[in-house]
């Protein structure tokens, strides 16, 4: 069996979700100030990413279980990076909404591809514990991302926040791209 790059995958998911978490802090004010939209539009922009994540996860997880975890995780990290850049460069609110959908889909693929990859190399009696610890990469990023956004805003303004949001999933891409081998087909599939 291939060595499972659990630490790299954990860090890749953390970086991706730090970026998403940072957008939760920054996005409402950004929508209002940059696009002259109201609170309902800001709420829509925030929520769209999570709807896309929820829609993507079953498909990404199924593909990962089928032995495609590495391409799923890499695609998720790439989509998240491109979407983050689109947040920064969006010429109008519609493009921002599209970027939110793409970011959500990327995040869904990132986590739902990485977890099965890690679990294929985990002994059956430690899978629950491993899934719990691995889940901290997602929830830790969502929790710490808003604090990171506040710190970046204080240090360098709005542009610093958005460039950080772009850089974090790019780190995810590099971490996943540096892995060797491929996750095996999930042992629990028929």
UniProtKB/TrEMBL annotation:
Gene Ontology MF: a single term: transmembrane transporter activity
Its record classes its membrane topology as: Multi-pass membrane protein
The Major facilitator superfamily (MFS) profile domain extends over 1-190
Q: Does the keyword Membrane apply?
A: yes
Query: What InterPro entries does UniProt report for this protein, alphabetically?
Result: MFS (IPR011701), MFS_dom (IPR020846), MFS_Exporter (IPR052714), MFS_trans_sf (IPR036259)
Question: Any idea where this protein resides?
Answer: Cell membrane
Task: List the record's Gene Ontology CC terms alphabetically.
Answer: plasma membrane
The name of this protein is MFS transporter
The organism encoding this protein is: Amycolatopsis rhizosphaerae
């Amino acid at each position: 069996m291939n060595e499972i790059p659990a630490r790299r995958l954990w860090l890749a998911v953390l970086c991706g979700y730090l970026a998403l978490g940072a957008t939760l802090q920054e996005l409402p004010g950004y929508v209002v100030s940059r696009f002259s939209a109201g609170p309902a539009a800001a709420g829509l922009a925030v929520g769209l990413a999570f709807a896309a994540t929820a829609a993507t996860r079953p498909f990404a997880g199924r593909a990962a279980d089928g032995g495609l975890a590495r391409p799923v995780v890499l695609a998720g990290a790439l989509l998240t990076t491109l979407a983050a850049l689109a947040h920064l460069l969006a010429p109008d609110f519609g493009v921002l909404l599209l970027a939110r959908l793409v970011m959500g889909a990327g995040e869904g693929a990132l986590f739902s591809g990485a977890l099965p990859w890690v679990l294929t190399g985990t002994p059956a009696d430690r899978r629950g514990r491993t899934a719990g610890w691995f889940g901290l990469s997602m929830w830790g990023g969502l929790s710490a991302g808003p604090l990171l956004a506040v710190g970046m805003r204080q240090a360098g303004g709005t542009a610093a926040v958005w460039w950080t949001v772009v850089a974090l999933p790019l780190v995810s891409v590099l971490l996943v791209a540096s892995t060797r081998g491929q996750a095996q087909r999930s042992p629990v599939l028929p």
